[in-house]
Write a structure and sequence with these properties.
The chain is α/β, with parallel strands linked by helices. Helix content is 45%, strand content 8%. The chain has three domains: 85 residues, Fumarate Reductase Iron-sulfur Protein, Chain B, domain 2, CATH 1.10.1060.10; 106 residues, Rossmann fold (3-Layer(aba) Sandwich); 110 residues, Rossmann fold (3-Layer(aba) Sandwich). The protein contains 19 helices and eight strands. Helix 13 packs across helix 15. It is globular. The structure holds iron/sulfur cluster (SF4) (2 copies).
Length: 356
């Protein structure tokens, strides 16, 4: 009988849960710039029963930005990003991966981080209130974010220590790698939390945030409050002494921070302490991806460039003086295709406006 559990239960063959209504198609960034259905959410679902070493099938699964905007409009509540990640795991088990993804996973094995760098390790000695875990991108590629965060925390008089031994494992999880890297860092952080008796673990990167807060629950959780820097600054705003300026700022919501983790008001609260905010046409939970997510920037660079162009044009139309984001990876990606716009990470933007 229609409406009974038989008809409404979730199917194990994922594509059967999709009503093929097509609502998700136009909204998908990779479809928007390619117009290929196999690079749309519905197309990806239709192809999801297959695992084959075919260039276009591999591209269909690995070119999803995992931005999650399709899930917002899906009337069948298909969890597309989760399906994509599981599917990537199936491909990875059969060692069918885009070439640069293989290198990235090898970097995780050999150096403990996706960049393959020798990132300096930092250990906390003694007890602190806050463990600051900067993550790979802030340490190895966009150092200004790490330095600005330290400057802000010092200016607020926070009792904190810096901890970095391993990558959080986010990159590996998002592209289908196994859980081992995430679990290694989980064990390390668990030990640091117990030793330092910290109450809060603070991160810059929305990828770290999601991994540490959501994925580490699979291992038992860290037993500490996990906060993104924007949440921490918003909640402790009275400890910030900032100079107001008259400039107009537009904020880019990272997919992982906004849609995946629900942090939307916090960065705006912090920015509104110093500047006027002008929103791009897609913002908050409806934000448009920067083009770099889900490992796409590593293996499908042209796709990243095209999606980024769309986002940059949305910001150009705001006539904002500065575009601010609070994701080291979005910052890095948007900056590389800024086309004359000024892009800042929220930490640097705020650090520059601290009262001396
Ligand atoms: S998560 Fe984003 S890129 Fe992936 S299918 Fe959905 S809308 Fe498209
Ligand atoms: S919106 Fe949902 S049900 Fe409709 S085509 Fe997309 S995935 Fe399928």
């Amino acid at each position: 009988m229609l409406g009974s559990e038989e008809y409404t239960k979730s199917r194990e063959i994922w594509s059967l849960n999709c009503a093929k209504c097509g609502k998700c198609i136009q909204i998908c960034p990779t479809y928007k710039v390619t117009r290929w259905e196999h690079l749309s959410p519905r197309g990806r679902l239709i192809l999801s029963p297959y695992v084959e070493d075919d260039r276009e099938l591999v591209k269909s699964i690995f070119s999803c930005l995992t931005c999650g905007i399709c899930e917002q409009v899906c009337p069948s509540n298909v969890e597309i990003t989760e399906i994509i990640e599981k599917k990537r795991g199936e491909y990875a088990k059969q060692t069918i991966l885009p070439e640069r993804h293989v290198r990235l996973l090898n970097n995780m094995v050999e150096k403990g981080n996706p960049y393959g760098d020798d990132i300096e390790t930092m250990e906390i000695d003694g007890e602190v209130d806050v463990i600051y875990y900067p993550g790979c991108t802030s340490l190895a590629r966009e150092r200004e974010i790490f330095e600005s965060t330290v400057k802000i925390l010092k200016s607020m008089g926070v009792s904190f220590g810096i901890e970095f031994m391993y990558c959080c494992g986010s990159t590996s999880l998002r592209i289908g790698g196994d859980l081992s890297y995430a679990e290694r860092n989980y064990r390390r952080l668990r030990e640091v939390v117990e030793r330092t008796k910290a109450k809060t673990l603070l991160v810059n990167c929305p990828g770290c945030y999601r991994t540490v807060k959501k994925d580490y629950e699979k291992f038992g959780g860290l037993g500490v409050r996990i906060m993104h820097i924007t949440e921490f600054l918003s909640e402790n705003a009275e400890m910030l002494r900032l100079r107001k300026d008259g400039i107009r700022v537009s904020f880019h919501d990272s997919c992982h921070l906004a849609r995946h983790m629900g942090i939307v008001k916090e960065p705006r609260r912090v920015l509104s302490m110093v500047s006027e905010i002008v929103e791009p046409e897609q913002h908050g939970m409806e934000s448009f991806c920067c083009g770099g997510g889900g490992g796409v920037r590593v293996s499908y660079r042209e796709l990243t460039r095209e999606v980024r162009k769309v986002r940059i044009e949305q910001f150009r139309r705001t006539n904002a003086d500065v575009v601010v984001t609070s994701c080291p990876y979005c910052y890095r990606n948007l900056k590389n295709g800024a086309d004359g716009l000024i892009i800042k990470d929220l930490t640097s933007f705020i650090a520059e406006r601290l009262e001396e």
